[in-house]
Design goal:
This protein has eight helices and eight strands. It is an alpha+beta fold and 290 residues long.
Length: 290
């Protein structure tokens, strides 16, 4: 019967092979150290790094070679980024408006707030604003405090006391009829809205504008690529890849485009201006040599 060299039969074949080839010095250094006190011990990690690490490195480089060759074709390539920007006229506005009321009790403040908000809802409905375009964006009930500089007998400042309560209710409304936007703002203020936080403008359907921006971005990339290849004396080959960067929305550069309110009997003057939409793409071409 052949000598098993102390290897159990259940070991995998690879382990039995390695253990059969590697001396016991690598596996049982304590036993050897007892016999050879002055002999330096070689660990299995050192053995692996000496004999197997170079093979592993070569294997990784071999597997990576096709990917490197694919990213850098032998004929050469050119990558160019193009940007396209278009402008569109807003067809809707988004306003944030509400009512802030105060009362001796929370109930008094809430009742006053509810009455004013009901009048605002009536105005919005009379202006043909659909309920899907009206959303409550904030509602709060908070106590109002009075702080005193007085101190007690121990010298500590007296705690604040509640003087009343404040209720705030805010709506976010999408207005699709910009011609009547000024009249609507004047109406909601007249019936009780005493807080208008912001107003912004938007385009309801941005798909056509974004498509135009993509066409402009592609034309920009092609023009740049042709300029560089003509200067280098080479020709553009087939397109290898086209990728689009994350889109961004450019707000109006002039802050005066935001609606401005004037407390007067005439409709509130507003200016919608224009909105800009951009797309950015990156195109990679193969270079065709003459």
């Amino acid at each position: 019967m052949p000598k098993s060299n102390g290897t159990p039969a259940c070991y995998p074949k690879a382990m039995r092979f390695v253990k059969a080839k590697v001396p016991d010095l690598y596996w049982r250094p304590k036993n050897v150290a007892n016999k050879f006190q002055n002999t330096s011990i070689i660990t299995f990690k050192d053995f692996f790094m000496r004999h197997f690490a170079p093979i592993a490195i070569v294997a990784v480089l071999f597997l990576a070679t096709p990917a490197l060759a694919q990213n850098f074709p032998g004929t050469g390539a050119i990558s160019m980024t193009g940007t396209g920007e278009v402008s569109g006229k807003p067809d809707m506005a988004i306003i944030s408006s509400g009512v802030v009321t105060q009362g001796k009790t929370a109930r008094d403040a809430l009742s006053a707030n509810t009455q004013a908000m009901n009048r605002i809802f009536e105005v919005l409905q009379s202006a043909d604003i659909e309920m899907r375009d009206i959303q409550t964006s904030n509602f709060s009930v908070s106590p109002q405090y009075i702080y005193s500089d007085q101190r007690d007998d121990n010298g500590y400042q007296l705690p604040p006391r509640i003087s009343g309560y404040q209720v705030a209710n805010t709506l976010t409304v999408q207005v699709r009829d910009l011609d009547n936007l000024g009249t609507l703002l004047d109406s909601v203020v007249s019936v009780g809205s005493n807080q208008i936080n912001s107003i912004s403008f938007a385009v309801s359907d941005t798909a056509p504008l974004l498509d135009d921006a993509r066409r402009a971005a592609m034309a920009d990339a092609i023009a740049k690529a042709r300029l560089y290849t003509e200067a280098a004396g080479v020709n553009l080959g087939k397109i290898l890849s086209i990728s689009e960067a994350e889109a961004f929305f450019a707000p109006p550069p002039n802050m005066e485009l935001m609606a401005r309110m004037e407390m007067s009997s005439s409709p509130v003057p507003v200016a919608a201006g224009e909105l800009s939409f951009s797309r950015q793409i990156t195109v990679v071409w193969e270079l065709a040599q003459d």
